[in-house]
Amino acid sequence: MKRFSSLFCLFVLMLLVSGCRGERSEKTxxxxxxxxxxxxxxxxxxxxxxxxxxxxxxGSERSFSDSSTRADxxxxxxxxxxxxxxxxxxxxxxxxxxxxxxxxxxxxxxxxYCAVCHDRTGSGKGLVIQRGFAPAPNxxxxxxxxxSDGELFGVISHGVxxxxxxxxxxxxxxxxxxxxxxRVLQKVTRSSISDVPHYMKSEVQ
Length: 205
Ligand code: HEC
What we know:
Cytochrome Bc1 Complex, Chain D, domain 2; binds heme C
């Protein structure tokens, strides 16, 4: 009797275990050892988390979910993405709104990416140049001042002669912010005491 009941228990147990596998069911079959078979996948270098609805990840205000949407955007807005008008001429003015926050962002990005060579004042005597990199011009000299905003955007994007390109590291919005900051640098370094309003002269002299 004891033997029968233990055999019966074994039978019921086998039924239960086998019943867990391969049964036609709308529900996912019971998976004893999932071995991480089912999990969210992300491509290497992609953002690893889906941002919550209605939010934008820090630093990726203009990122695209795939390259074709970015390619479309580039085609439809050559002013912003290439610094060029429809007819291929350089854009004259920064196409973003230049306010205090934009200029602060531009200064910060300039100090991160450009000052190593051009130094914070744009003199062209940054550490990398001091250590023997090809000479860089003073960014406030007439020739550079005469470049349009679009041309400066082009220099940052594609580099020029000995200067490397920065389009991979710096998103378009930030490149324009750097251009806006460059204009501030030029204005500040090229101005003289006569540009200071009379009521502030005592503060600077
Ligand atoms: C690795 C050093 C280096 C860095 C970093 C660098 N530059 Fe330059 N830059 C140069 C050199 C060298 C030149 C001179 C190129 C030449 O005439 O051969 C130059 C030239 C320029 C010019 C003059 C272009 C012209 O037509 O003569 C501008 C404007 C400029 N850089 C802006 C920038 C800005 C803005 C950044 C930051 C995004 C930057 N550079 C980062 C080395 C650098």
